[in-house]
Amino acid sequence: MVHIELLCVGRLKEPYFEAACRAYEKRLTPHARLRVTQLPEGHPVADRLPAGAYTTALCIDGESVGSEALAARLQALMTAGRSSFCFLIGGSDGLPDAAVRRADWRLSLSRMTFPHHLARVLLLEQLYRAFQIMSGGSYHK
Predict the structure, then answer these.
(1) pLDDT (tens digit per residue) in 28-72
(2) Given CB 3.0 to 4.6 Å as the disulfide criterion, which of 4, 47, 71, 132 pairs with 137?
(3) How many CA atoms lie within 13 A of 37 on its CB side?
(4) According to the 3-state scheme, what is the secondary structure of 94-124?
(5) What is the CATH number of domain 2-135?
(6) Contact at 8 Å (CB) between 39 and 86?
């Protein structure tokens, strides 16, 4: 089974963001074991990176890919033997440089700036969509 950890700086405060995250977390459970860790602002994120996980930092200046390309990348990594993934979502000040430097990949959800709460929802939705694409499901269409 695939393991996915989201390391998120900051807590969700709005109930509608919490509800959206819970909905996608539930949808992901048949595909992956998911753990979401919320870290306080200023916490050394790099110290919490899981050993051996393929780490992706969400950065506005990261690589921008479509849903199919994200699914293909995850599939290629899993085919190559990766089963543990970590996604880093910064807070209002972004991610600490040390965490970004340790990431295997820098991914941009968009060139637009989103609040970190919304970025978490978008990432969870895209992960669910990627697994649907990989399994031949119809959700992504």
Answers:
(1) 999 999 999 999 998 899 999 999 999 999 999 999 999 999 999
(2) 132
(3) 14
(4) ECCHHHHHHCCEEEECCCCCCCHHHHHHHHH
(5) 3.40.1280.10
(6) no
